[in-house]
Structure formats: structure tokens, C-alpha cells
Fold this protein.
Amino acid sequence: MGEFLHDHPITPRTKDEKEKVINRLKRIEGQVRGIQKMVEEDRYCPDILVQISAINAALKKVGFTVAERHAKHCVSHAVKSGDGDEVIDELLEVMKQFSK
Amino acid sequence: MGEFLHDHPITPRTKDEKEKVINRLKRIEGQVRGIQKMVEEDRYCPDILVQISAINAALKKVGFTVAERHAKHCVSHAVKSGDGDEVIDELLEVMKQFSK
Amino acid sequence: MGEFLHDHPITPRTKDEKEKVINRLKRIEGQVRGIQKMVEEDRYCPDILVQISAINAALKKVGFTVAERHAKHCVSHAVKSGDGDEVIDELLEVMKQFSK
Amino acid sequence: MGEFLHDHPITPRTKDEKEKVINRLKRIEGQVRGIQKMVEEDRYCPDILVQISAINAALKKVGFTVAERHAKHCVSHAVKSGDGDEVIDELLEVMKQFSK
């Protein structure tokens, strides 16, 4: 915390929203455990690399869902309150990390 | 399996090699659980996005470790046996996924 | 054109804004020509790959400058007019390409 | 130069190989000029961002072609001469830039 403008979203996430994101993260957690098993079983490296790429893609998808919600709630709210530029700078800074 | 040229590495991973990779994956698994908690606590989106980027970076690092081992053992072995090109094509194909 | 919601930015780019972006693109154009020369001179592959990565990084930087301007002008304007969500969806769709 | 193990490929690029890569780079150069024109004409930001993503993708493709050639010639040669690991480290280091 502290680094960014807020600690919580302007509109709290609904129970349903939380569940959807958490379920996707649980699937990703399972995929990470799956790779541990592959290493344990001494599976072929390219098979492992394909799985790692799949997890990265899944994480990026979750990230974009989070970013979309943020843009439609927090950024939109800030724009209407006249503080849009700061929140936009903050979001773009974070998106730069994603593009790496 | 099946998609690639082999099911296992040409040189089996040592117990120590396996442990190192698995430990890093366990840490990543913990990070994924950490994000679930952040969503549960309704934390600010940019904070969550930063964590997702961190996991992606950690996964890429593991991927490069796996790729390095693959190149130094399997690719090198295949080159010496005269089958290098096929294994190189296979590795580059997988690396393309990573560069996304 | 046609694919997106508009053909032009809501606030026209100033002469100065255009010049800055175009100058950066001209430098990138020069870097691309530089790689052609490196290939012509049969330079070592890793040297060429480093240059290609540098251009990709420079292009992403230009992209983020363009995205920032877009968010601060077009997206903000759309949010204030009540059409924010569509423009946000459009921008995130485009950012997904960048994250590849 | 200097940073890497060699200044030139172990097997010189043929005239035909050079031409193919250079032609693709010329197309990319043209695309970069195309974006300059789009900025000049004050085109809509998402249209510009799509073009930048296309150039990045095209550059990565060229990069993978260069990397493939490198792996099949220089890396393979080094492996056969017993110096594989160094050249593999060098290539992976460069590929890490690509994955950003």
C-alpha cells in the first residue's frame, strides 16, 4: 500500500466479482502445482515451457480483467471528479509492467 | 506428451536441480494465493496488477532456467548426434510463446 | 479506419505534439535502417538481436505516449459524456496487443 | 562489438539470406514511415497503436529468424567444438530481452 493513490477501489468489488477472479486465480494456482509435478516427474523441458507460457497468458487475462474494472470504475470516477490524469498515469505505469 | 520429440530430458534432472525449480514454483504458488487474498480484501487494482506482473516475471525466470538446462543438455546432445536442427526448431517454437 | 469508434482524436494533436512523436519515429526508422546495414555487413547475430530488442522497446515507449494522450483526452472526454465504457474497452483491446 | 563472443557469424550469411532479411526490414521501415504519416494526418490513437503492435510483431519475427540461423550455425558449431555453453548463455541472455 502507500505507493498508489488509494488502498481500495472506489466501488467495492461485489461478492460475485471477487469469486470470479479468485476462481481464475485458483485455477492458475493449480497450474503452478501442475508444473511442480512435471518437474518432479522429470518431464521434457519444452512441455514444461509450454505450461509456463499458458500460465503467463492466463495471468495476463486476469490482469486485463482487473485493469478493465479499474478503468470503468476508479478511472471513470476520477475523471468525473477532475482527478483523471493522476489515475490515468498510475494505470499506464502499471500497464507498462504488463507489456514486458 | 507426444507433441514434442521426447518425453523426458536426455540427462535426467538431479534431485538438487528438481528441488531448486520446485522451490521457486512453490514461492510462485504462494504469490498466486497472495493475490487471491488481495482480491478477497478488496485491495486497490494497481496493487494487484503489480503483483501479477511480479509473478509473470518470476515465471519467465523459471522458464529461462528450464530453457537453459534444455539447451545445454538436450540441444547440445542432439547437435552432437547430428539431430540439432529439429531440437533447435522445437526450442525456438516454444520460446516464441514466451516472447508474447 | 472504421474498425474503431473514431477516425481522429477528440482534441486535435498540436503541431508540437505531432513533431515530438514523428521525431521519435524517425529515430526508430533510422535504427531499422541500421539493422539493415548490420545484416549487409554480416554482423554477429546477438548484436543484431540486441538492436531489434532496442527498437521494440522504443516503439513500446512511443505507444505508451500515444496511449497516455488518448486516455487523457479521448477517454476522459468520453467518460464525461457518458460513453466511457466503450472507449475504455477499445483502449484495453489495443493494449492487449502491446502486452504480447 | 566487443560485448559478445564474435563479430561475425561462423558461417557467413549468403547473398540470398541477407536479401531476405533486409527486404523484411525494408518493409518494417516502410511501416514506421506509415505511422509518421498517420500522426501527421492526426489519425485516431487506437489505429496508431494497432500499427505499432504490428511492427513489434514483425520485428520479433525477424528476430526469431536471426536467432534460428544463429542457433543452427554458430551455436551448433560451438557445441561441436566444445564451447557450446558460453554461446548458449549468450543467446539466452539476448532472448530474455525479446521476452520483454
Summary: Chain D has one domain: 15-98. The helical segments of chain D are 15-40, 45-81, 84-98.
